[in-house]
Amino acid sequence: MSESDLKLRESSxxxxxxxxxxxxxxxxxxxxxxxxxxxxxxxxxxxGTAQNQSSRKSKLLVGIQIGARSFVDExxxxxxxxxQSIGGVNxxxxxxxxxxxxxxxxxxxxxxxxxxxVKEYDQIHGGSFTKVHPEFxxxxxxxxxxxxxxxDFDILADVIPRARAKGMQIYGxxxxxxxxSLIPNFEKVAEVDLYGKPGRQTCFNNPYARTFIAxxxxxxxxxxxxxxxxxxxxxxGPLNNALGAHFGNFDSRRSSITCFCEHCIHxxxxxxxxxxxxxxxYIELDHWVSRTISQPRTSxxxxxxxxxxxxxxxxxxxxxxxxxxxxxxxYGTIYGTAKAINSxxxxxxxxxxxxxxSPFYSADTNYARLAHISxxxxxxxxxxxxxxxxxxxxxxxxxxxxxxxxxxxxLEMHYKLFGLQNEPSLDKLPTSGLSGESVxxxxxxxxxDVEGAIPxxxxxxIDIPTGLNEKRTQPEDVKAATLxxxxxxxxxxxxxxxxxxxxxxxxxxxxxxxxxxxxx
Length: 520
Hints:
Elements (H helix, E strand, L loop, with lengths): L2 H18 L3 H4 L2 H7 L13 H9 L2 E6 L1 H7 L1 H12 L3 E8 L28 E2 L31 H6 L3 E7 L14 E3 L5 E5 L4 H17 L4 E5 L5 H6 L18 H9 L4 H20 L6 H12 L2 H27 L4 E6 L7 H6 L2 H4 L5 E4 L6 H13 L8 H11 L11 H4 L4 H14 L8 E3 L13 H13 L4 E5 L7 H14 L3
Parallel strand pairs: 1-2, 1-11, 2-4, 4-7, 7-8, 8-9, 10-11
Antiparallel strand pairs: 2-3, 5-6
Helix pairs in contact: 3-13, 5-6, 8-13, 11-12, 11-13, 19-20, 20-21
């Protein structure tokens, strides 16, 4: 890319941010505005000399996701010192908001306790683990979100100065993990499923939901000297959920065929999409799934009959694309809101693990498009827990769209689609996991897709819960995955899911990789 093209791209972003800074209300419309600027191509990554590569090695970001409970249990200074000395960590991704157990709290129940911290389990209420400033929520229907379980401990105000003293960066990490029973007025921001039932997630097109998200972002960025934010939106569109294209229990996501609320119906109409036809199509698709998984094979088979449903209701695919566009607009809302307050803040997105096993979700999640509303991306090519997760995904998807094939054939097809070689067979997959090299494959793909415009920081899974007889993380697994990511060109990694469930011996595998890579 020429110097003039680069200046045009940066000028376009600056002009946009200057415009939305005028009023917070305008920030709620920033998603579609930023996406409209996607015709400007991302900056191409230079090949670089040996000297440049050496410089990048010395500036690698080594992040770790951590909840407030760990700081309270172990002490802030001691905890930060452990992360630096054991794992070579120089960036803390501190969980500022969640109602779930994946990013906050101690080890999840039924899992073995790690080799650090308080040797007890705890209960999660959740909410904001940093101070809530009411003036930022004046226009939000959701206001009281302070997590009560840790008293006045503030994961930003109490950690930032100590992290800075140790030369560490600190990012706010927040996710879409809500508990509607603990959040007054949540029904006003909730998505609505295919049959009219309110869901447990927010609707991307609901103006109250956008205001709520923007309120939190404005509060955190305005009142804390953080280096940036990372949002986890671990959701996929209604088509993928309907077909069982996920790694959870098959029926657990069929209630997530969303969203068909009044806001989505109205917005879709303006975009030329018939919401009623889309709903009728998804009802027919849901019936097709029920028939396919419970009845003998028909003469035409699963794939052909599914394709007939899609041909009869092209609105199914239109609604799927509409859903993802709406999610991207929410990314844009967060990005624009934060940048209008602090243009130096680095804003990025966690991309859920499914991106490395589902070609459908991978196609929907367009890294090149996201590069225009991101300062970094964290794809999650988790290779250890990928063993049981991918095996479950294959069984799910084989029971619907690929029922004409055997599970083993479906797995082999997916390996080929993702460019994976010499990976375990289906019977061995749950206990073996995927190779460290699989992390490098996804890292290269992501870097190629964004054309070097933004950094790619792959997630390295450490002790993410699996079954007791399934693949468990070992130090050599962490080392292999980290090395694969760095050798593929990543300028850093993020150790995941949360420190409270990781063994120190496994975290040390990341530092061993840094040493072998020549970054220490």
